[in-house]
Amino acid sequence: MLKVIPLGGLGEIGLNMMVVEQGSDLLVIDAGLMFPDDYMPGVDLVIPDFTYLKENEEKIRGIILTHGHEDHIGAVPFFLRHFPVPVFGTGFTLGLLEEKLKEHYLIEADLRLVKPGDVTPLGPFRVEYIRVNHSIVDGVGLAIETSEGILVHSGDFRIDATPVDAQFTDLIRFAHFGEKGVLALFSDSTNAEKEGYTLSEKEVTKTLGDLFQTSRGRLIIASFASNITRIQQVISLADKFHRKVVFNGKSMITNVGIATQQGFIHLPEDIEISEHQISRFPDQEIVVITTGSQGEPMSALTRMAQSRHKGVKIKRGDTVILSSRFIPGNERAITSVINKLYRLGADVVYEKVSDIHTSGHAKREELKCMLSLVKPRYFVPIHGEYRHMVKHAQIALETGMADDRVLIAEDGNVICFQDNRIQLGDPVTTGKILVDGKGVGGIGDIILKERRKLSRHGMVVILLAVNAETGETVYGPEIISRGFVFEEEGQFILEDAECIVLEVLDELERPSPMDCSTVQSEIARRLKRFFYKVIGRSPLITPVIIAI
User: What's the pLDDT score for residue 123?
Assistant: First the structure.
């Protein structure tokens, strides 16, 4: 029996991870992360739950990476700490991963370079890598030959008939497997709601070219550091319009270095300058390529907008271009940056007012094309929220697939193939592991609930020292408030709270030795009721009683 088990990426954006298992062999496809939602204060990253893999560790033959975006490789360092297996990826993908592994002090990882057209045998599987076009270079889809049939995994893709980097989605190879016979297609659903075709990168280049031609001051272009194709287009336009290029932002400088080394970026001689050299050239001869298109608090563009950037000060006449889409959830941060840039005198161009960005994910007509070429017996939409997968399933039905051949799965589902039939097995453990600083998985619902409570209502600490034998108060009660009421203005509330603490101490029987936990619980209960009655808020109440 052949099993396909999504451990992340179905019903959510990010966290992409999938297992293909047959008998005593198992391969993993991608290990991505997602960034925390607003209800996860203090959390840095979210990674997939590896429980199922830990239970089957001896079966793992390797992990295959489709491309280098964070939602596909961001959890690989955490994965490799548990499972030191071979990692297969294209040159740019492994280049990005190597930088991550250095940050995690994992320099001994077994990284194996592959390229489109290569075939990797792994246990009973034969994996062929198929070139796909995406918003990052060197992406691949996968054709996995198994004893039950061929599985095709699209990776993240779009079909751009006029790509500027010659990285076409290899429709001929996908069609080859379609003619050969595909058991199941697992295909990217991110843009399944959007009609038509994805805007070609060539159209974005045309828009950028118009801005280069009309701008009379400095150009400051914010883009994803992983969008190497876009960065190359800006470099080429800078060369055409006789501008010097400044790379700004840690990830931008790192990624450009990797891409240049691997031949994806070509820098004309003497075109690059440092930010310290900007003042040596007229404004109309400068273009800055920077990070921060999503309004990230510590990014280079945000610091420019706040006049905190040491090397680039925004001034009247600058044109700032946000060459990326507004990722849902980031709208408020991005618009805040845009407004601040306008206040400093810059002109700002962004997706909502110009064709300055195109998606890396296929829209409905491209998804239909992939389905028509691959002609799978079964279809499983992946990569997207639940509504995206439902829309993608509807597209499959529109192309003529029977309803019983289309399966909408979720994380943890076990999709079983046997004798050309598909069915769901018993689900496996899956979920989200929260990463907080150096802590992995130590944050649960209770901690998040406390953090949310702290952020909304603040906290109150009651300090009290008592005689362990007699129960008499030796020190306090002292009440410290943080984020609850301003201690001077709300002093009467805190004074009344002290009286309540003293009442509790008078009313309770005090056994010898002193039972501090009972007193703490009663103080917290009484103060909770008092604060809510007086001010309508519920701070986190922490009585600290020291028996001496």
Answer: 92
The 10s digit of each residue's pLDDT in 349-359 is 988 777 888 99
For CA atoms 64, 413, 7, 159, give the dihedral sign.
positive
Contact present, 288 and 221 (Cβ < 8 Å)? yes
Across the strands, what pairs with 249? Answer: none
Closest CA to 460 of 382, 529, 542: 542
**Alpha carbon distance 451, 454 (integer Å):** 5
Q: Tell me what the mean pLDDT of segment 95-120 comes to.
A: 95
Q: How many whole angstroms separate alpha carbon 185 and alpha carbon 130?
A: 14
| CA pair distance 176, 159, nearest whole angstrom | 17
Grouping H, G, I as helix, E, B as strand and the rest as coil, residue 46 is strand
How far apart, in Å, are the Cα atoms of 349 and each of 70, 219, 300, 340? 26, 11, 17, 13
Closest alpha carbon to 339 in 352, 329, 348: 348
Closest CA to 47 of 28, 74, 20: 74
The two structure tokens encoding residue 308: 């905190």
- What's 376-431 look like in SS3? EEEEEEECECHHHHHHHHHHHHHCCCCHHHECCCCCCCEEEEECCEEEEECCCCCC
Q: Strands 347-349 and 319-322: what pairing?
A: parallel
More confident residue, 443 or 327: 327
Phi, psi of 477 (to 5 degrees): -75, 140
Task: Tell me the average pLDDT of the chain.
Answer: 90
Indicate the pTM of the whole model: 0.84
- In whole angstroms, give the CA distance from residue 78 to residue 56: 17
What the block records as the tokens of 139 is 């992406």
pLDDT attached to residue 443? 61
Q: From CA 410, how far away is CA 456, in angstroms rounded?
A: 33
DSSP 105: T
Residue type, 488: E
Residue 200, C-beta contacts closer than 8 angstroms, at least 6 positions apart: 160, 161, 162, 163, 358
